[in-house]
Amino acid sequence: QTSMKNMERELVCPVCKEMYKQPLALPCTHNVCHVCASEVLLQHGHLYCDPTSEPTSPAATPSTRSPRLGRRAVPKPDRLDRLLKSGFGTYPGRKRGAVHPQTVSFPCPACQRDVDLGERGLGSLFRNLTLERVVERYRQTINISAAIMCQFCKPPQLEATKGCTECKSSFCNECFKLYHPWGTQKAQHEPTPPTLTFRPKGLMCPEHKEEVTHYCKTCQRLVCQLCRVRRTHTSHKITPVLSAYQALREKLTKSLTYILSSQDTVQTQIAELEETVKHTEV
Q: Which positions fall inside the RING-type domain (predicted)?
């Protein structure tokens, strides 16, 4: 138990304090999540460009590139050098307003040192695929060691194979069918992996399939962590979903209070108009 806990600490990102997602290997040998690294650079005033958008980036793998980008012609090395020397275009870690390329300094959250990433910023980093596989295997080990049993089986209970966020329960295959009969509203519930702790189902970003966490006031739309660090929202006003929800709720509450307070006056005016119509008809 203790050794598993120690191993879990080694698989946690020093920025988000969660297990690594697409970890990037820093020159100081420490690792950081792709999204976390992007946010750190953004906070330090560097424009962010998704490394997957540059086919030459070592941080991009064939599975993460867009098929549309894969069909584009790769710029010739000499032309790419001319573009970088002339200061045109954006790339990971380019400073806002910079005319000429400059090296990017990344503050490593693990060793508290400023690490030089070169001119390409995150584009010069490699994804730590070995660490990524270790994290995935660890997750599978935890799931196997803590088997979740069906909550509706009569003894002997079968192992749960599906979960339902709406029902907040885990089921075996037969029980899932039994409690989600065809032709009912429950039949539309989407099965999820079985778990003992069901989080409320959050809204998902249609583009990145990640849970939305922020609201862009400029675009008036919900955004996920990956949307947030894209160049599209560089100068936009972005707030956490909870803050946006509370502000909108207060605004609607005030409007509703005003409407309800004016209801009696409006009803009186309607009654007077109806009397006037009757009088006119007579």
A: 13-49
Q: What is the pTM of this model?
A: 0.38
Q: Residues 181-221: pLDDT tens digits?
A: 988 888 888 888 887 776 655 677 877 777 788 888 888 88
* Residue where the block lists tokens 């309800």: 260
Strand partners, 106: 115
| Domain 1-48+103-146 CATH (choose: 3.30.40.10, 3.40.190.10, 2.60.120.280, 3.10.180.10) | 3.30.40.10
Query: Phi/psi at 222 (nearest 5 deg)?
Result: -80, 145
Spell out the residues 6+ positions from residue 4 whose beta carbon is closer than 8 angstroms to its own.
142
* Dist. CA 208–CA 199, nearest whole Å: 20
Q: Which of 160, 195, 41, 182 lies closest to 108 in space, CA to CA?
A: 41
